[in-house]
Amino acid sequence: MRDLSNNLLKKSGLTACLCAPGVVAEALELLMRGNAAQAEFAACVRFDPVLALRLQLLPAGFGLEHPDLLRALLLAAPVAAGTAQASYAVSWRQSVGVAHLAQALALRAGVADADAAWTAGLAHNLADYFDPGMRPLADAADWLDGMDADGWVADAVRYHAEPLTRGRAAHPLVRIVQLAYQLVTRADAVDSVDVRAALAALQIGAGESAHLLADSQVQVRQQALRFGLADAVVQASGTGFDRLARLYAGQAAQSALHGHFRHTNGSGQVFSRLQDALRALFGIEHACLFAPAADGTLRLTALIPAASGLRALAIPPDDGHSALPRALARNAPQQFERDEADAALVDEQIARLLGVSNFLCQPLALRDGQIGVLVAGDAVAGLSASPLWRFLLAECAEALLPVSAAAPSPAMAAPAPAVPPDDIPRDRVRRAVHEVANPLTIMRNYVNLLSDRLGEDSTVQRDLSIISDEIERVARIVRGITAAEENAPPATALELVSVNSVVSELVRMALGTLFTPNKVNVQIDLNPDVPPLPLQKDLLKQVLFNLAKNAVEAMNAGGHLKFTTRLVDVDGLRQIEIEVADTGPGLPAAVVSRLFEPVASEKGGDHAGLGLSISRGLVERMNGQLSCDSTPQGTHFLIRLPTLQQGQAPLMTTRYGPM
Q1: Mean pLDDT over residues 316-339, rounded?
Q2: Does residue 490 form part of some domain?
Q3: pLDDT tens digits, 397-409
Q4: Which residue, 15, 390, 408, 651, is most buried by CB atoms nearer than 10 A?
Q5: Where does a domain end: 440, 457, 485?
Q6: What angle do CA 650, 655, 656 make, to 5 degrees?
Q7: CB-based contact 494:645 (threshold 8 Å)
Q8: Where are the beta strands (DSSP E) in 218-321?
Q9: Do 289 and 323 lie in a common domain?
Q10: pTM of the entire predicted model
Q11: How far is 171 from 17, CA to CA, in rounded Å?
Q12: Neighbour tally for 512: CB within 10 Å
């Protein structure tokens, strides 16, 4: 039996192998279509040597049971990028060519399983996809051990480049993959004596094999064009773009991973999903969990199934030789490698019982407030520094948190007071905010990616800047939801804001998306003497957008919208007045009288009837007033703000930080 300590090729290494970006992209699109595209998804990923193998090594039905985790796997998969794409494409075309021809030969000869022939042919040059910095020393065919009962697939990969004469009496699958490899990689191979002899043994003529080879080459060209791996379309991208693309993929993978843990119920389900994530994302098949016992020693827990022999171990917390107590004492991950001279014997025993050559000890917060140690077998070097690894641990820890730390049992709980139907529980609000934060981060990164890709065009960059600013504004609004829930929310820092600039920015932002498509002409009349105000810019911007949107909706056939700023004196106090006036049909007096009440809207759809009520509340937060005057010739909204903002937080020049 192969010595595990010398078998340096671990399945976790597959997670560092390069995948085809075109295959990953198409697979993600198909995954978004749900179960209806399951067959198309399977047909797509079989064209990626690494992805196909990674998915085959997962339990049957994994994708159906864990779609979020499958999406995270795809998003986190390293892909060929930049200058590496050209060499990757050459290896990929060879993989698919040998796979297609091996499958055709197996079908024609009828002596080997066609699917096994495809798998072996696709993986014959698997070593070409290793990360150059992590090239293993053992045979890549070891990864395919267990793919079939007798190991013929692994043998076909292991011996694919051996001379045909050596395989004369070998298993038919081995001979077919050898033959396909020779025909694809050797010019005029069909005319050589050894190839013709191997074909004859399968009762295939030279002419027929040439036809099969030509058909295989056509199929490879078609698939290369489909996935962007043909010679004419492979181009190197800039390193900046590649870095941003990886960042975007990482953020999206984190979002998918959050979905994987979102609806867990109880520690058992949390750790079951943790094991699924370890296997799918990091290739970790052997893991266990140690936690402090009543006597103070570290002992195996039942939360992650592991070898029963591990239950006999009790590790003192002050054992500085063992990686497990060191991880707890330093609150930092510790790595263990077998056969190190000064390694603790208990660590050697853990590795032997897990069947691994190394393991990572990772501190992990548990539900009862204790800190346990997750032992992850055969983890790739540097795993603890991976952002996705850290995010996985954070999601696991969050999923283990009780819904309410002090919630009484249902039998003992006192009757709860009636809750208004629109009162959303605080924990649900926080979860919703967390849900929104992830896609906002993805959107922000994607805008950065587009900005890098689209160059220095000032118009494009201005539009992207508007999108980025609006994403940040949404992020701040979302953060404000949780702040508003606290009994005493902290005061928000103010900034000096030019009211005229806010109006100008709003018009520029909405011109192509709101005004022009609805045939609304816009005019601005801004008083240059209006001074800057210390206020929250986002609040004013939100109010103005609400008023503009209402005005556009009131002018069904188009019309005229005017923004005016001016200085006025009200009761001896100087104020800034902002007027938003439209040429719509006006509002009935009965509607105007209750215009700012949160009532159901008659517009239907996404109009909740809350916009004007919210707008008045936001203006009042700025110590101002919002009023309306409507006639059959149009509606005028007036915002009045004092030139000195009182009763709010002190002025600060620092803008809001990142979400």
Answers
A1: 89
A2: no
A3: 888 876 544 344 4
A4: 15
A5: 485
A6: 100
A7: yes
A8: 287-292, 298-300
A9: yes
A10: 0.52
A11: 29
A12: 11
